[in-house]
């Protein structure tokens, strides 16, 4: 928690000497002995002004604390006084030194409402048990009780802003709800950004012509409409503004509200958040960025437009080149009166095309507490200089030098790989740099570049073509927009220099990798700076048009290989915020607007940093505009939304509607064929609908937007990414070959493991049925009958209304690779290399043979390892090796980087040293062949991967489920019949060749015989092995058979087997599509 943003409570000023202190501010006597801290505790006093103190607790962490607290169970206060709340924090008898983070961390919070934060470093160290400290009113902490004259009344300094100007008429403030009788409320404003908390004497430096304005108590709570729009503010009182207040003018000011006692002393004060008000006053749909003044570019010249309603002044700085000095500085203009739309505009001659520019914005910034002068590129940039430093003035649709082949019409008309239905997709995730950085067949100057995808005959090219031929339809690229975590100019990078020949569990490789982690060419790229510009480090030249042209060529090259392209987009946060960082863009244009702030004013960072606020009209617009830009100007075929659950559902629905409106005739894009899916996790400040309806799994049914199903991942592999990585699942030996009792892996008793396995199997069944919430499981493992998919074992597995809304997966770039997961869970003392390899195959089979959209991580098919690295986002090429030939594995190339993995090094060392755990080239080759076999089965067999919910609900069943099932084996049957919406007859059948398909997934470690489901067709031809599996390169797969005499399916250990019943006349079907 040491990285959490906390409220700034500093820079307090003493009240005027003549000011009388209110009675509430009189120093309270130290509480009686019963409230004093026990001898083993530190007595911590935390500043919390005002009357609103209910529900606050103290989050405690660090080695000096005897016990840390959970976020959802903070330490309760031991009492309160004039200063705030106080707590008894138990200290450890002795604390280990040298670990990351502070010796003691303390954070006052109420849910996600974070207030004062204190991190005490090892030096000078933590005060002793029995002592008292006070913090929250300035820097650090005090060991003696401060005087009330030294303490501000509220939290006006820094980001403190607990008041919310929601409409022209109303400001919401929770503190007002508990205000003493006779309290009065005021709005204060300063154009210079100079308001100060003067303690009991009141707020200083307000502009006399506009403040203070007395506010009325309008409502005891939010109106129904406001409560719906701002659920997290329920319980706040509404304060009314006087008639005639010029809200448009005041939006530019430094604003604060205060509460005064009837005697005139200030009891509390805070800043004001104005995002909702800006939406009401200035939401804008007109052109933004750089665009032609006239259809004739040469004659009409250039227009620039920036939405910056809180700015006092905006100017444009022009440059002749990406590194040249300033050429001109020109002021922008803003309309006045009722026509003021918050947009600053400037027009120039056609000579501006091809020149670079930045904006200089002067506006009050809450993070600075002052009016700041800030330079930024255009947030609507389409092209830029290296490292996002300057925007290039251009009109992208007509810029010939950025068009493959130089002919826009021809380029836009080029065909894409066919896709019959969005739910027919099969997605393969890959990182742009990983694709070629380790490929010896790629020229050095193109390693890690967009253009490596264009090369033919490389190992990567041959591999992707093989996957496309087998059935992969889409390549999903990790972020390829402009991100801020890699220096874009090669001469400014320092690459990894990892020593060769180190021991398999050496610390040296990770130390070398971390030394260059922030200066080398590798990062996953989840650090957005400019959303609509391709990343420059992947281009041969980061300045100018090369990055645009080469990204377009990459997409075109993947299309030529038979693969559509999905972009990984990250609209939930930005790389930087504030007035100073060169990589802060949105927060300089409209400070405090584009980023989501807590009720108390801090910038939320639950996504990892700088959460955006797409509930705001202009952030929502930016997202929709950006998606359309990439779809039309780069001809991509879909979008994967990072942490989609932090984006409002309304925003995602607008994106879906905007894409669906694109047509081949008008836009060169078949919009309804473009994919949209993402991470529908629910956590942080958006959990429980606190910021309205967001795009989490449970809300997406019927939207046509997909969400990753983490439940099938966990059921198949075992555990979760947040538990002991050794916990087993369906495919990794749970209840089949468990850990010995002395191994230190807590999986419960034998009976508990068997139950956990059966529960996991039920969850997998529901996921195989496209995670449809309306699918009915006839009986679960506990004997419950007719269980709705959405309710199976507590719910959460099934949330979709259509197959396209379910993304089934077992591995992705996050967390350990699939192979590394099986290394963790299948100890070499318990499992052979072949069994571990077959477990990988079984995991992949669960995904490949499911209904819904299958998703695979690059290297799943190659037993890819990252030396057990659980988060390789910044680990460099050394740990992220992707070798398509199978000759080079990153298993045992050293301990993975300490920051994310150090606590498990002790468990990792014996694994990394074990030579039997390193996959051989022969194992990699067999795994790639099995992966392609599974894909061909799916692509060739219409009854595998149904695309319509009605077909899944009617035709998919799970024989032998329920209380009497065989532990460790899942049987799924999909029968043929008229396709949903078809008129009937043979032409309307789902499959022209087969009466039914029976899929068996066995995690058992012995050959298994299962009762064969009876035929439902009139002909009733016998089941037989799918012809593609009958010709499998894997001998155990070929051994699977239907024992007609016994009426049983015979399945080898750790296998996924597909049996078919042909339709009459199709007995010789060989697996052709």
Automatic annotation (TrEMBL):
Q: Taking every annotated instance into account, which residue ranges of this chain make up the domain Glycoside hydrolase family 13 N-terminal?
A: 287-381
Q: Output the Gene Ontology terms for molecular function.
A: carbohydrate binding; pullulanase activity
One of its GO biological process terms is: carbohydrate metabolic process
**Can you give the residue ranges of the Pullulanase N2 domain?**
161-280
Checking InterPro entries in the record gives:
Carb-bd-like_fold, GH, Glyco_hydro_13_N, Glyco_hydro_b, Ig-like_fold, Ig_E-set, Pullul_strch, Pullul_strch_C
Q: Name one Pfam family in it.
A: Pullulanase_N2
Q: What is the protein name stated in its UniProt record?
A: Pullulanase
Source organism of this protein record: Alexandrium monilatum
């Amino acid at each position: 928690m040491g990285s959490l943003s906390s409220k700034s409570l500093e820079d307090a000023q003493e009240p005027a000497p003549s000011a009388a202190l209110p009675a509430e501010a009189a120093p309270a006597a130290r509480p009686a002995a019963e409230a004093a801290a026990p001898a083993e505790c530190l007595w911590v006093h935390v500043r919390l002004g005002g009357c609103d103190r209910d529900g606050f607790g103290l989050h405690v962490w660090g080695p000096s604390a005897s016990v840390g607290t959970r976020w959802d169970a903070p330490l309760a206060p031991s009492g309160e006084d004039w200063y705030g709340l106080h707590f008894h924090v138990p200290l450890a008898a002795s604390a280990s030194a040298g670990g990351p983070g502070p010796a003691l961390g303390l954070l006052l919070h109420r849910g996600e409402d974070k207030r004062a934060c204190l991190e005490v470093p090892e030096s000078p160290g933590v005060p002793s048990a029995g002592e008292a400290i006070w913090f929250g009113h300035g820097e650090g902490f005090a060991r003696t009780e401060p005087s009330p004259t030294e303490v501000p009344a509220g939290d006006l300094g820094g980001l403190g802003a607990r008041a919310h100007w929601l409409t022209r008429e109303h400001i919401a403030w929770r503190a007002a709800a508990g205000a003493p009788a006779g309290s009065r409320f005021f709005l204060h404003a300063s154009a210079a950004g100079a308001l100060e908390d003067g303690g009991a004497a009141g707020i200083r430096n307000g502009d006399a012509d506009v403040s203070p304005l007395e506010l009325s108590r309008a409502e005891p709570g939010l109106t129904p409409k406001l409560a719906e729009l701002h659920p997290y503010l329920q319980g706040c009182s509404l304060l009314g503004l006087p008639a005639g207040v010029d809200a448009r003018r005041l939006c530019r000011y430094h604003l604060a509200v205060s509460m005064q006692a009837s005697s005139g002393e200030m009891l509390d004060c805070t800043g004001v958040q104005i995002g909702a008000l800006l939406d009401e006053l200035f939401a804008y749909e007109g052109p933004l960025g750089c665009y032609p003044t006239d259809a004739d570019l040469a004659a009409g010249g250039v227009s620039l437009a920036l939405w910056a309603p809180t700015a006092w002044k905006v100017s444009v700085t022009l440059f002749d080149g990406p590194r040249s000095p300033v050429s001109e500085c020109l002021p922008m203009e803003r309309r006045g009166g009722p026509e003021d739309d918050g947009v600053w505009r400037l027009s120039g001659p056609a000579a501006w095309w091809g020149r670079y520019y930045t904006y200089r914005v002067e506006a009050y910034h809450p993070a600075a507490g002052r009016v700041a002068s800030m330079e930024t590129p255009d947030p609507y940039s389409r092209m830029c200089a290296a490292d996002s430093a300057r925007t290039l003035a251009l009109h992208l649709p007509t810029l010939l030098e950025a068009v493959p082949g130089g002919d826009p019409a021809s380029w836009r008309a080029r065909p894409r790989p066919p896709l019959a239905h969005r739910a027919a997709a099969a997605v393969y995730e890959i990182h742009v740099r990983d694709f070629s950085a380790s490929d010896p067949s790629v020229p050095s100057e193109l390693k890690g570049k967009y253009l490596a995808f264009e090369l033919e005959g490389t190992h990567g090219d041959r591999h992707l073509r093989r996957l496309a031929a087998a059935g992969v339809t889409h390549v999903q690229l990790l972020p390829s927009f402009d991100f801020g975590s890699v220096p874009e100019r090669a001469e400014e990078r320092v690459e990894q220099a990892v020593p060769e020949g180190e021991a398999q569990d050496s610390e040296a490789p990770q130390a070398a990798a971390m030394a260059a982690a922030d200066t080398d060419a590798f990062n996953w790229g989840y650090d957005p700076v400019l959303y609509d510009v391709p990343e420059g480090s992947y281009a041969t030249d980061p300045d100018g048009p090369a990055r645009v042209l080469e990204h377009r060529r990459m997409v075109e090259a993947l299309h030529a290989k038979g693969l559509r392209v999905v972009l990984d987009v990250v609209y939930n946060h930005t790389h930087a915020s504030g007035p100073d960082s060169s990589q802060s863009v949105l927060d300089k244009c409209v400070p405090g607007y584009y980023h989501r702030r807590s009720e108390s004013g801090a910038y939320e960072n639950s996504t990892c940093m700088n959460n955006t606020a797409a509930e705001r009209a202009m952030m929502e617009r930016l997202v929709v505009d950006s998606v359309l830009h990439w779809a039309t100007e780069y001809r991509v075929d879909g979008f994967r939304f990072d942490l989609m659950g932090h984006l409002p559902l309304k925003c995602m629905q607008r994106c879906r509607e905007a894409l669906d409106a694109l047509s081949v005739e008008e836009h060169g894009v078949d919009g309804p064929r473009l994919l949209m899916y993402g991470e529908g996790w629910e956590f942080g400040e958006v959990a429980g609908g606190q910021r309205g309806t967001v795009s989490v799994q449970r809300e997406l049914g019927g939207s046509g937007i997909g969400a990753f199903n983490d439940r099938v991942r966990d059921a198949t592999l075992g555990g979760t990414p947040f538990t002991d990585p050794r916990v087993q699942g369906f495919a990794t030996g749970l209840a089949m070959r468990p850990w010995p009792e002395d191994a230190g892996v807590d999986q419960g008793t034998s009976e508990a493991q068997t139950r956990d396995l059966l529960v996991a199997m039920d969850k997998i069944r529901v996921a195989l049925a496209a995670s449809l919430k309306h699918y009915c499981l006839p009986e679960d493992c506990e004997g419950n009958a007719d269980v709705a998919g959405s309710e199976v074992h507590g719910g959460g597995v099934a949330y979709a209304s259509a197959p396209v809304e379910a993304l089934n997966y077992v591995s992705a770039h996050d967390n350990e690779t699939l192979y590394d997961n099986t290394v963790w869970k299948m100890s070499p003392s318990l499992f052979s290399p072949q069994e571990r390899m077959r477990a990988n195959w079984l995991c992949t089979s669960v995904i490949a043979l499911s209904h819904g959209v299958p998703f695979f991580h690059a290297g799943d098919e190659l037993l890819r390892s990252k030396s057990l690295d659980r988060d390789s986002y910044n680990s460099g090429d050394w740990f992220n090796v992707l070798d398509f030939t199978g000759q080079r594995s990153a298993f045992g190339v050293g301990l993975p980087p300490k920051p994310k993995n150090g606590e498990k090094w002790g468990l990792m060392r014996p694994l990394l040293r074990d030579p039997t755990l390193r996959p051989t080239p022969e194992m990699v080759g067999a795994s790639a062949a099995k992966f392609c076999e599974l894909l061909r089965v799916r692509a060739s067999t219409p009854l595998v991967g149904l695309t319509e919910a009605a077909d899944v609900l009617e035709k998919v069943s799970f024989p032998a489920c329920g209380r009497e099932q065989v532990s460790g084996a899942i049987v799924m049957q999909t029968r043929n019949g008229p396709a949903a919406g078809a008129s009937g007859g043979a032409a309307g059948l789902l499959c022209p060749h087969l009466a039914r398909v029976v899929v068996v997934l066995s995690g058992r470690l012995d050959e298994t015989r299962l009762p064969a489901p009876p035929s439902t067709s009139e002909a009733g031809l016998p089941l037989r092995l799918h012809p593609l599996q009958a010709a499998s390169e894997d001998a155990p797969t070929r051994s699977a058979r239907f024992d007609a005499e016994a009426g049983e399916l015979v399945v080898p250990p750790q296998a996924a087997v597909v049996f078919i019943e042909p339709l009459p006349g199709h007995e010789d079907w060989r697996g052709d599509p």
